[in-house]
Amino acid sequence: MSTADVLGWVLLAAILIYSLLGGADFGGGVLSALAFGQNKNEQRLLIRQAIGPVWEANHVWLILIVVLLFTCFPPAFAALSISLFIPILIFLVSVVLRGAAFAFYTSDYASPTIQKYWQLVFALASIIAPLMLGIIIGTVSSGRLRFVNGTFTGSYWQPWLGLFPIITGLHTVALFAYIAAVYLIIEAQSLDEQKHLIVVFRRVALLCSIAVFVLALFAIILAWAEAPIFFIQLVTQAWSIPLLLGILAAAIFAFSALLRNKFYLARLAAVLQIALLVISWGAAQAPYLIMPDITLTAASYTTVTQTMVLWALGLGSIILVPSIYLLMRIFKNIKII
User: Fold this and answer.
1) Residue 5 burial (10 A CB sphere; 0-12, 13-18, 19+)
2) CA 215 to CA 221: how far, in whole Å?
């Protein structure tokens, strides 16, 4: 296995962890925007308490993805930055606004009126950011970005405004809201004064699970028509059927566990569902970084640089992994997620 292949796996692992941690962070914002009923303020308070200690740390995985692309696959980094600069810019502005809004929204010094406006900014940015993230991923897999000798030859609007990228974006929003709702059930369960919210987030998780299934089905049908290379790779490889069946089985198990009030099992199954989904996307995407013109190998920088980056990752993980574990252990009282 070449250094480029190893770094490709590292990239996929970072995307997976970001989906599970940062995704729940974004999803919490989506659920804050959709909070309903007489206890909507209590729902928002629980969401604030849940994401408050970890929302900044979650973005370390996004930074890692960007740095790896920039240092190890600069042609792909340049191609993405140019061809998708509009959705990337919207995504980054949303991430920054979301963080600022959360800080002001939860501040004790702001007036209730000002907090209300910042809460609205936080909610909107929490929906727009994952929507753009999904659109970017869908566009990269769609084959709608074309390059001749490394130069982008298409429109800056048309590739990412297709139906397949947009459905992928909506699927990402639903998926993040789903994993956030599953996590929040456990959060509510651990606090006596908020246990009545278990019923609310259980219902939301079930609804989001259905939305995720419908949008995933729609995305696969659209991939057949609008992203043919990705679709063929997704359904015809040796791993295709086992992985796709694994995703379906995990989704059914999580749904069933929610119905039976087995919340820890539901969380485990939901995490497995998202993990298999990201892995199947990465396997279908290989060997391309951007379909169909830029492969992992073609976009690779020098082996020396990639080897040094791998060493840096190994040394950095000695500090990063225990730090993340300690953060989760202290504020979430969990051992795995």
Assistant:
1) middle
2) 10
CA distances from 68 to 65, 186, 194, 200, 292 (A): 5, 34, 41, 40, 21
Nearest residue to 25 (alpha-carbon basis) of 132, 117, 142, 125: 125
Which pLDDT tens digit goes with each residue over 198-246? Answer: 999 999 999 999 999 999 999 999 999 999 999 999 999 888 889 999 9
**Dist CA 10 CA 14 (whole Å):** 6
What are the pLDDT digits (tens) for 288-331?
999 988 999 889 888 899 999 999 999 998 988 888 888 877 77
Q: What is the pLDDT of residues 7-55, one digit of tens each?
A: 999 999 999 999 998 888 899 989 988 888 888 888 888 888 887 777 7
* Matching residue, tokens 């789903």: 178
Over the range 312-331, which residues count as b (16 or more CB within 10 Å of their CB) and which as e? Answer: ebeeeeeeeeeebeeebeee
